[in-house]
Amino acid sequence: MTRIAITIVTFGALAVALVLGVTWFAISEPGQRFEPAVNTLALLAGITGIFAERWAAQRERRQQAIESIVSELARNREVLAGDEFSEGAPGGRKLYSRLLHSAVDSAFTSGALSLRRDTELISLLHQWRGQVSSVNRRLELTEMLMFTTASADEADDFNKALRTFMPTVRSHLDEVESYLGAMRSEPSRRITSPLR
């Protein structure tokens, strides 16, 4: 409510000042129109500057959020390419690296992504976020079960069961990275997901 009131008062005052400046310009004598013209142009620049600054700040926040997400996805790709998730991984009890999702969470909570412009990206990131949460939960359960069971064979079975889930996670990661790659190459256009 306070922000709306401040916005209304600010733009109201600028609009009144602009109307007064134009009126002053219209009624002043031909040799004395320089000052009202400068005043009117300064007000127009101020009004335009407010919108331009807001637009530039939103664009910068969005770009930073996307760069952070791209960096986080690259780190997750490294985690998924690690020995612990490979088919030939040694058996036995182990602790797994977790997938990251803080950049995605930050992009959601900061409002850096626009519901109007980034609808499909937001949807993909929500799906990815759910996938990451599911993987991390499975990793915790697998570790708990492996360390509480007495049998090495059961620990190997847990490892194998976990690895069967990883191709789906890698596929989803590929989809998000492909979408972001296409979006970054042509940032002015809305781009549909290449894998849908």
UniProtKB/TrEMBL annotation:
Name assigned to this protein: DUF4142 domain-containing protein
Organism: Actinokineospora xionganensis
TM spans (from-to): 37-56
Keywords annotated in UniProt: Membrane, Transmembrane, Transmembrane helix
The UniProt record lists the keyword Membrane: yes
